[in-house]
């Protein structure tokens, strides 16, 4: 049966995530996976969960198992509002921050609208923007254009409206980069000039291992920023809980939209999260997670220094879960992937995060999921295969250069023959006169 006629006009725009495909095909526990953005299982407060669950059931009884408010249970909204210094009315609970991205896309984007984003960009966000048939443009290009022409506003709004700027200012996924205060101010300046919103995706902000926190974009421009938070990396992703902080008028539309997405976020999970955050357990657990991740980041950086061949560089992020590697330009991490995977190591090719599939010599490495004992053999193996690919590329270059030189020599000889023949012809013609 041909089902294609049943699909909506949006369906061809759906983007399959190469990262999720890796998880579908590969048993993560059987390999050394630097691919996903999974937190370390040791950071989950496993031992605290039974006590938390007992408390929640004792306090709320069947209410914890019932449907709840679409905005989220008041107890969770209150602890989040208190932690981030905003009124409760500016907090909407989401069923994870991926839903936060999707609901913002659904509420603000029409087909053809423009989202300005960094390139490379978080794949899950790209999937949502594409699903609503929005176009993604690189923010740095707009920023450069703006410094040249202060009148860029009209240029953009006439073409197609920029509805929002999507950024991950802290410990970006995938690049690991953190925006400076000046870069954040520049984002705000562009947003004000274009009169668009900003979606500040911030699931990693609390995972800082070095350096000083930088002011959030929400703090710089609260009137036009929707800041997305998540419990996935500071509690456990299995609870699927996140939040949006933003202006009430915007949250009102998000609230209406969310009614048809899930009616309400998971109630039992919300009470657990409220208790975990409100009682101080989250902060205590966070300190342990930060120490764990700092060790893993430092270990991965030191192993890269030890094993990677010359010509490979990487970021040293101040937090988050990812390192970004750049290999010599001749190497192709998409082509290399199968060989590395069959040797038992996984990464994500960097080009998957570029809207145009470029930068095929880059890769994203996650340092949070693989335990420390597995990290050294994993990086050693990856480095050996990168070295081998670099040698193959150099050999291929040498063969190509030799072939080009030989072709050049043949051409030179042919040209010399032609010149000689022409000379002989001319001489013959001369003699004939
Ligand atoms: C930048 C970014 N935003 C959002 C998400 C989604 O997180 P969750 O839906 O688990 O809150 C992720 C997950 O890795 C991410 O890296």
What does this structure look like?
The strands form 3 sheets. The protein has a 7-stranded mixed β-sheet, sandwiched between helices. The chain has a 4-stranded antiparallel β-sheet with strand order 9-10-13-12. The chain has a two-stranded parallel ribbon with strand order 1-11. It has 14 helices and 13 strands. Helix 4 packs across helix 10. The C terminus is likely disordered. It is of the alpha/beta class and 433 residues long. The protein binds pyridoxal-5'-phosphate (PLP). Pyridoxal-5'-phosphate binds next to helix 4.
What are the salient characteristics of this protein?
433 residues, 4-stranded antiparallel beta sheet, alpha/beta, 7-stranded mixed beta sheet, binds pyridoxal-5'-phosphate, 49% helix
């Amino acid at each position: 049966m041909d089902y294609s006629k049943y699909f909506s006009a949006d369906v061809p725009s759906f983007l399959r995530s190469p990262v999720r495909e890796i998880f579908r095909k590969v048993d993560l526990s059987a390999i050394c996976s630097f691919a996903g953005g999974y937190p370390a299982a040791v950071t989950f407060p496993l031992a605290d969960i039974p006590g938390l669950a007992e408390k929640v059931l004792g306090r709320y009884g069947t209410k914890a198992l019932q449907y709840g408010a679409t905005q989220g249970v008041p107890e969770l909204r209150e602890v989040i509002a208190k932690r981030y210094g905003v009124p409760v009315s500016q907090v909407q609970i989401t069923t994870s921050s991926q839903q936060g991205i999707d609901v913002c896309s659904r509420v603000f984007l029409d087909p053809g609208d423009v989202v300005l984003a960094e390139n490379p960009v978080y794949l899950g966000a790209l999937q949502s923007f594409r699903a609503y048939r929005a176009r993604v443009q690189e923010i740095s290009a707009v920023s450069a254009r703006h410094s040249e022409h202060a009148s860029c506003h009209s240029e953009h709004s006439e073409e197609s409206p920029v509805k929002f700027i999507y950024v991950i200012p802290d410990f970006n996924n995938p690049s690991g980069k953190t925006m400076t205060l000046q870069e954040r101010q520049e984002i705000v300046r562009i947003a004000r000039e274009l009169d668009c919103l900003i979606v500040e995706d911030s699931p990693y902000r609390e995972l800082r291992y070095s350096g000083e926190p930088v002011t959030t974009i929400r703090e710089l421009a609260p009137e036009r920023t929707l800041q997305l938070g998540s419990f996935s990396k500071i509690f456990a992703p299995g609870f699927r809980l996140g939040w949006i902080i933003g202006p009430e008028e915007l949250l009102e539309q998000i609230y209406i939209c969310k009614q048809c997405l899930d009616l309400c976020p998971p109630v039992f999970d919300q009470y657990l999260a409220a208790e975990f955050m409100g009682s101080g357990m989250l902060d205590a657990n966070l300190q342990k997670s930060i120490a764990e991740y700092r060790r893993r980041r430092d270990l991965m950086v030191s192993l890269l220094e030890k094993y990677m061949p010359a010509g490979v560089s990487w970021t040293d992020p101040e937090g988050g879960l990812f390192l970004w590697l750049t290999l010599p330009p001749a190497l192709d991490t998409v082509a290399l992937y199968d060989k590395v995977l069959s040797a038992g190591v996984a990464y994500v090719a960097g080009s998957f995060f570029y809207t145009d599939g470029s930068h095929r010599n880059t890769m994203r490495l996650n340092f949070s999921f693989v335990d420390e004992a597995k990290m050294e053999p994993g990086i050693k193996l990856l480095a050996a295969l990168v070295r081998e690919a670099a040698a193959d590329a150099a050999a291929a270059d040498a063969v190509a250069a030799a072939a080009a030189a030989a072709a050049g020599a043949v051409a030179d000889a042919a040209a010399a023959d032609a010149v000689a023949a022409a000379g002989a012809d001319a001489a013959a013609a001369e003699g004939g006169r």
